[in-house]
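Whiteboard transcription, Tuesday session. T.W. wrote the structure tokens on the left side:
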């Protein structure tokens, strides 16, 4: 079975005191991930080192950064490089989140550059892709997501792409309370995997974890995760409540 992942994305929320309380609440539930599972918590940059010390004392739990810059180093005030994240032991980084694409105009090429730097530094990228509402309403979501994959991922070798995580996020369902149905999630994630198989072969595509992101919560997580091509979730708002996120972890295959 592919790795199953419950990933939390705190975004720009919580003071460190609130973050500590949340982490203690999640870890205090004493849910131990199975051998094929991981719990990843993406925290704001200032909290990475302190959160890592708390989280990684428990097997199967990891901290992630929410972004990195697409250049190796240089005069880029306020940015954080992949090499910096490696130096403090960060193992996962979320890139290409729809909010980064929309508000900061991140391009598929910049994301390709970020992927290269992360992989060079031995960090696992969690690569986000997904379509806005207008694209979904026009029934063009498949070609839209395929273009994101082709332009950002298809320069990678089979070995390299086997070392990433993909998170499909229907942008129209992020923070809106709307959620793709379990069937909708399975349909596009199966298509996404077929695109990977077309480039890299079925064996490689079958190994890559593909998460669903978009208003995942305790009430719907288990149903969504039960789909063959859904390997867990990238969770926003519900990850800010310990009891909700714990139930989402428990919903993994």
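and on the right, the sequence the group agreed on:
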């Amino acid at each position: 079975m592919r790795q199953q992942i419950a990933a939390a994305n705190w975004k720009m929320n919580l003071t460190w005191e609130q973050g500590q309380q949340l982490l203690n609440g999640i870890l205090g539930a004493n849910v131990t991930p199975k051998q094929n599972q991981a719990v990843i918590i993406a925290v704001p940059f200032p909290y990475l080192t302190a959160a890592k010390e708390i989280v990684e004392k428990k097997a199967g739990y990891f901290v992630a950064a929410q972004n990195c810059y697409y250049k190796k180093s240089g005069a880029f005030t306020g940015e954080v490089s992949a090499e910096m994240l490696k130096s403090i032991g960060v193992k996962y980084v979320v890139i290409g989140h729809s909010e980064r694409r929309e508000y900061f105009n991140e391009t598929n090429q910049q994301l390709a550059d970020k992927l290269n730097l992360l992989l060079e530094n031995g960090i696992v990228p969690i690569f986000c892709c997904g379509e806005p509402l207008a694209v979904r309403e026009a029934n063009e979501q498949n070609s839209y997501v395929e273009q994101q994959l082709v332009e950002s991922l298809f320069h990678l070798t089979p070995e390299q792409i086997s070392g990433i995580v993909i998170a499909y996020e229907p942008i129209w369902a992020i923070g809106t309370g709307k959620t793709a149905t379990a069937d909708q999630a399975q349909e596009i994630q199966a298509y996404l995997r077929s695109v990977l198989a077309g480039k890299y072969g079925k064996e490689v595509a079958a190994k890559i974890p593909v998460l669903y992101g978009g208003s995942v919560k305790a009430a719907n997580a288990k149903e969504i995760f039960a789909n063959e091509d859904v390997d867990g979730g990238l969770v926003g708002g519900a990850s800010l409540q310990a009891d909700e996120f714990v139930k989402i972890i428990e919903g993994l295959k």
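Someone added at the bottom: Strands lie at 4-9, 37-43, 61-65, 92-95, 124-129, 165-168, 210-212, 232-235.
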